[in-house]
TrEMBL record:
PANTHER family: TRANSCRIPTIONAL REGULATOR, GNTR FAMILY, UXU OPERON TRANSCRIPTIONAL REGULATOR. Pfam families: FCD, GntR. One of its GO terms (molecular function) is DNA-binding transcription factor activity. It comes from the Bacteria. It comes from Saccharomonospora marina XMU15. The keyword Signal does not apply. Residues 7-75 form the HTH gntR-type domain. This is Transcriptional regulator.
Length: 233
């Protein structure tokens, strides 16, 4: 398996920064060298280094301070390694695809059931939940909102066992969704648009439409991972 295109270059940049921390060159609280100097030293383009820094800042490994440079966060070294490990190793593991396949089987049916059984007040509250993100949510805010959105719909199906399964499987794909939001252009906007469509289908009591939108929504994440992160070689 391998990442493709700029994805593998970004992974290389992340791995290089990780190695500097492992080797003790960068310690918690240290400031990174200037972007140009670090890119030259690591043999990376400034663009790929910039993407790596952006990704690592979103998972709190690096702290980008405007006008002051980029710092390694003051996390314990073991926590830093755990946070970085999932990004570097993510594209080598296709287990997440199996969880997304299960989501694609379960959640559309849960969503169709919710269109018939979920109380109107709870459906209206889904719109409030989506509105709470504002116009320009961060990826982290979106993923937290996303988990809550899908949990409420699963609960709205009226089947506690189904809700428990959906919650369990959905949580296992959280990091994948975060990484998609970081790296795929327009992923945030697409997610919000699809969530709105699902909420409207629930509000209109259209189970078939709700099922279809839920399928499209989950299949989009699955397709992205299949094509971009875990291409077989």
């Amino acid at each position: 398996m391998k990442g493709l295109g700029t994805m593998s270059v970004t992974d290389d940049a992340i791995e290089a920064i990780k190695q500097m921390i492992v080797d003790g060159e960068l310690r918690p609280g240290d400031r990174l060298p200037r972007e140009a100097d670090l890119a030259d030293r690591l043999g990376l383009s400034r663009n790929s280094l910039r993407e790596a820094v952006r990704a690592l800042s979103l998972i709190h490994v690096l702290d980008v301070r405007q006008g002051d440079g980029t710092y390694v966060t003051s996390l314990e070294p073991a926590l830093l390694m755990d946070a970085m490990g999932f990004v570097v190793d993510f594209h080598r593991d296709d287990t997440v695809l199996q969880f997304l396949e299960v989501r694609r089987i379960l959640e559309p049916e849960a969503t169709a059931m919710a269109a018939l059984t979920m109380p109107k007040h709870d459906i209206d509250e889904l719109a409030v939940l989506l509105d709470s993100l504002g116009d320009r949510p961060t990826v982290e805010q979106l993923v937290v909102n996303d988990l809550e959105f899908h949990h409420r719909i699963a609960a709205g199906s009226g089947n506690q066992v189904l809700c428990s399964f959906v919650d369990s499987v959905s949580g296992r794909t959280q990091r994948a969704r975060t990484w998609r939001g970081i790296t795929q252009e327009a992923a945030v906007e697409r997610t919000l648009t699809e969530h709105r469509a699902i909420q409207r289908a629930l509000s209109d009591r259209q189970p078939d439409v709700a099922r279809a939108w839920a399928t499209v929504h989950i299949a989009g994440v699955e397709q992205w991972i299949r094509q971009t992160l875990v291409e077989q070689i």
